[in-house]
Amino acid sequence: MFYLITNLYYLAGKVTIVDLRLHACAYSFHTLPFKSTFRPPPFYLFRLQVVGSCRALVDGKMSLIEPGDLLIYRPGDPYYLSVEEIDGKIESGDYYLLCEGSWIESWWAAQPRQTQQRIHLDAGMLSLWQQLGLEQHRIVQQNPELIRHLLCALCLSLDRLPVEAVSRQDTPGRSNELIMRMKRYINENALQPLRVEDVANFAGLSVSRAVHLFKEKTGYTIIQYTQEIRLSNALERIRYTDLSLESIAGNCGFGTYSYFHKVFKARYGITPKEIRSRLLESEPEGDYVITSGKEIKLTGLSLDALKFLKTEE
């Protein structure tokens, strides 16, 4: 998706790099109560809820945030996040990023925007956000140009969502509405045992019709789409929690670790254990390490981002 746009403009034989800086991009997962402070973010703050639920300050009141809810705060906007027990369960997972620069300011001003909006958690969007986080956290050979490409692509892709939603409504029949219902059901239940029959029943379709329609409209089978959601969640739990790999496999809907190991390696070209080992080797305790008198960044987070994020604990 990111190759559709560029952050380099070729004018009169010169290359101008867009003014766009990413201070942090990561995945946050909570199973215990958590509250941020009321300190306004010094950057643009994006949060995309993908698992569970929480509450956040939106337009002056605390609102329920569920999978598919995207929050965008401007620098200085009041911000407060609370992960608490909802419907007898504490669980919240979200992607977040902090950025600034004249490009993002122009993007924000280009059209009316709301602090909270609901978007579709399709595999392409999650993959783009995940790739941005991976690039930001590279310890060696970090590529600022690619990071800007990915961040621009993410923002411009968000702009397309309302347009696509309108065009779907103009098509004959209810096909796209049914796809949206099936995706919503999968997004909310992917980490639990899930049958194709359940997805079809939720949309009010026969299994054969649901399977054909989903593949035709998304390019994924229902199983493939479910697998992408599960793998994305598993990867983030490997990176950002200390849960055992066996627990992660079970919690993300894979049943057995051997099956999880097989599909994970097929998708990412590396085993879950290798990912965990590399993280342990490359990221010692602390966000920065002092070596040869120099401060070396390990996590991809700027010092300003770390100061802001640490106030949330």
TrEMBL record:
* Cited Pfam families: AraC_binding, HTH_18
**SUPFAM superfamilies in the record:** Homeodomain-like, Regulatory protein AraC
Query: Which residue numbers delimit the HTH araC/xylS-type domain?
Result: 180-278
Record's keyword annotation contains Transcription: yes
Q: Which InterPro entries match?
A: AraC-bd, Homeodomain-like_sf, HTH-like, HTH_AraC
PANTHER family for this protein: ARAC-FAMILY TRANSCRIPTIONAL REGULATOR, HTH-TYPE TRANSCRIPTIONAL REGULATOR EXSA
- Mind telling me what this protein is named? Helix-turn-helix transcriptional regulator
What species is this protein from? Answer: Paenibacillus tianjinensis
What are the leading ranks of the lineage?
Bacteria, Bacillati, Bacillota, Bacilli, Bacillales
